[in-house]
Amino acid sequence: MSDTKVEEEAPEALQWLFDMLDCHDRLLDREHQMRLFRLAVEKQMHGRQHCWTQKERLYMALTDCELTSPEERCDLALWSSYTLRLAELKDINKQVAIRTEHLQRTSTMDSDIDDIREHLYEKACNMAIDHFACAVPLSIATAKNPSVVLDDNAGCCPICRNSYTALSTSNVDTDTEDDSRMEELLDLLADFPVRIKYCGHIIGKACLEQWMVIPKLDEHKYDNRTCPMCRVEIEGVDAPEMPQGLRKHLRKDAGAVETARELMQGYDVDLDECFYLILACMSEEIACEELLAAIGDTDKDADVLRAQLANLREEKWAWGFSDDGLWMQLRAEWMGSGVGAASEGTGNSG
Fold first, then answer.
1. Looking at the whole model, is its pTM more than 0.70?
2. d(CA 340, CA 133)
């Protein structure tokens, strides 16, 4: 590369270097920086300098003990920035802005954590089925069961006969109609199809919850409640196995531990109910996403469902799920467990 080209691009590399150092100073604590530097030194001690990351290479240049003056170390760091073409990476200032926004959002959520936990307590008081039933994709709930000659339950709850997705077709032009439309959407969410893990039957959630509290007709004959569609017991039996890793997360993650402690000590919620709250959040998120994909055809419909998803994100954050990696893994495991989960032929009628 010509000297002229170097002179043209060197200022850009220098600015990137200063921005990087400023970014580290503002956003990384000293422990984080020392850990990064320690890893780079360990690689050097084992002759693995070629494995240095770009950040590690930059740090080693800035701390090279063979260079006696800060100016020499800065020159070497600048040359590293230039030769590695770090200036061609994403604008570091943009990354700082994104990170700063995240920190501000987290700070806001910190101030709202008491409200979130109060909401979780209210949910815990009303949970009845979330430990043994999970929301299912609408494609499964609306499929006809090939083992039944006439499957009238496809696409609707077998108890109340209401459709899982039907909304009125009236235009939402007035405040009254707007409120009515929102109520319809919330009703669909409340009665979204869930699969009972003990037997595989799919029933609207609200109807199943109601089934769990109405007086039993043959209490002398059946000690525990059974599935509304069959005689499989859904009460007084061991809860289905939860996703692997969920117990570990609730035991290891600082945010999850703190939320569980607050609920257990401040609201008298037991540990199992903490797990069930997370499972309930998974089901509700599935329901919102499925309905958003199926009927979120107007801005107002979509806004209602997105608002519900935003509330669920706050719950996930309170339980220590700051990103979707582990969360989606555990959610898929929970949705895919239980009787009938592996077969899309599992219908409402059994």
1. no
2. 12
Residue 153 and residue 202: Cα distance in Å, rounded? 10
Residue pointed to by tokens 């495991």: 333
* Helical (H) or strand (E) element with 203: strand 202-204
204 DSSP β-pair partners: 193
User: Contact, 251 vs 244, CB < 8 A?
Assistant: no
Strand partners, 202: 195
Q: For 132-173, write each residue's pLDDT tens digit.
A: 999 999 888 766 554 433 345 678 899 998 888 877 554 444
Residue 120 host element (H or E): helix 113-126
CA distance 255 to 268: 18
CA distance to 132, 180, 196, 262, 310, per residue, from 305 (Å): 25, 15, 24, 29, 9
Q: Domain ranges in the chain?
A: 3-107, 112-335
Return the DSSP state at 196: E
Decide: 41 and 56 in contact? Cβ < 8 Å. Answer: no
Q: What share of the chain is helix, strand, coil (3-state, %, to 5)?
A: 60, 5, 35
Planar angle of CA 86, 72, 29, nearest 5 degrees: 60
In the three-class reduction of DSSP (H, G, I as helix; E, B as strand; rest coil), residue 193 is classed as strand
